[in-house]
Design brief:
about 400 residues; Aminopeptidase; Alpha-Beta Plaits; 2 domains; eight-stranded mixed β-sheet
Length: about 400
């Protein structure tokens, strides 16, 4: 069964590329993916798949029903783009000024569409069901995942898997780990209100710049002295804006930044410590402040059994794969985390680097691209996972194979 699916997905490779390139030429930003959502829904319906539109916003959920009862596995692909000008010199360059697919979401979508068609064509072979989670707005908190979950996208789902193309890893590699793979990603804004005045008379002012500098310096001590060193955390100031003239002491300073953590207790501790520190520094300098902290996506945490199953599938059904167990999680954010807070599953990365076509730039770079053969590799992994959950004989054969 699986070998036949592989042959069918390989025959769809050119179609996969065509879909990907169309999406790349016609990107849409988070929460604005009207045409992309319609395209996905229309294609799934043309395959004969049951489709629910406008799930949690612009999300699309398809469901493939197997001929026999069994587990329901969900597969996720995101489809929003980024506010970045496409600087690649390729025929399928973005046609939308200032907007491009700079993170591989066009490839994720094309891959899952092809997987959907193959599985629908072979639904009579499935002992179980497959839910297709085509998700909007991964790039912009609060994101699309949580809204889709609240709208019932995980109803009757037993396990959930997601993949991300990775331009920083060699083609053929598959990167995964049990436990955290990405950090909780939070943002904060701080406005300091002082008292402006002439640069020659600092004693008559409350220098908002000086207050902001003190806060910036002291924030580093929260991680180094208040957080357990065995629990990673990052506090970064990304912007600091104050004043317009060199001889004027500014009355205001505005700072923005991000906090990255894996442990919820550490996350809560940092919020509390930041508030106390900011309050104390501002009081010492006679300034007032406004502090807004926004929780973003939580940490993405893979469950053990489902990650072991991924590895079994790679080793036993995709010997050409190069499994790579990630030693340490990354500090980036990913709203696949919400699915894993509600269901067991695994989020993994698939290598897509190729120097020959300049697929070497990092994600969110104006020249980002990937080796499109990675889509075929990802599709085969998805098919292998579906086969495991919906093929009793295959599952029994793999149950005693190697694990992480």
């Amino acid at each position: 069964m699986l070998e036949k699916w592989y042959e069918e997905i390989e025959a769809m490779y050119e179609q996969m590329v065509e879909w990907r390139r169309y999406l790349h030429e016609n990107p849409e930003l988070s929460f604005q993916e009207i045409n992309t959502s319609k395209m996905i829904g229309d294609l799934l319906e043309s395959f004969g798949i049951e489709v629910r539109r406008n799930v949690g916003g612009n999300g699309i959920v398809g469901k493939i029903y197997g001929a026999k009862p069994g587990k329901t596995i969900a597969l996720r692909a995101d489809f929003d783009a980024l506010p970045i000008q496409d600087e690649k010199n390729v025929a399928f360059k973005s046609k939308v000024p200032g907007v491009m697919h700079a993170c591989g979401h066009d490839g994720h979508t094309a891959t899952l569409l092809a997987v959907a068609k193959v599985l629908q064509n072979n639904a009579e072979e499935l002992a179980g069901n497959v839910v297709l989670l085509h998700q909007h707005a991964e790039e912009s908190p609060p994101g699309g995942a949580i809204a889709m979950i609240e709208d019932g996208c995980l109803e009757d789902v037993d396990v959930v898997y997601g993949a991300h193309l990775a331009s920083g890893s060699d083609l053929g590699s598959v990167l995964y780990r049990i436990g955290p793979v990405s950090a909780a990603s939070d943002a904060f804004e701080l406005k300091i209100q002082g008292k402006g005045g002439h640069g020659a008379s600092p004693h008559q002012t409350i220098d908002a710049v000086a207050v902001g500098v003190q806060i910036t310096n002291q924030l580093k001590h929260i991680v180094s002295r208040r957080v357990n060193p065995q629990k990673p955390a990052v506090i970064s100031i990304g912007s600091f804006h104050a004043g317009n003239a060199g001889n004027v002491i500014s009355d205001t300073a505005e700072l923005t930044g991000t906090v990255r953590t894996f442990d919820e207790d550490v996350r809560s501790l940092i919020i509390e410590e930041m508030e106390q520190l900011i309050k104390g520094v501002c009081k010492a300098f006679h300034a007032t402040y406004e502090f807004n902290y926004t929780k973003g996506y939580p940490s993405t945490v893979n469950t053990a059994d489902e990650t072991n199953i991924l590895e079994k599938c790679l080793i036993n059904t995709l010997p050409e794969s190069k499994p790579v167990i990630i030693e340490k999680p990354g500090m980036g954010g990913e709203d696949f985390s919400y699915y894993l807070q509600n269901r067991p599953g695994c989020f993994f990365s698939v290598g897509a680097r190729n120097e020959d076509i300049e697929a070497i730039y990092p994600h969110h770079h104006p020249k980002f691209t990937f080796d499109e053969r990675a889509m075929l590799h990802t599709a085969k992994i998805f098919l292998s996972l579906v086969d495991y959950y919906t093929n009793t004989e295959r599952k029994e054969a793999l149950v005693n194979s190697s694990t992480i």
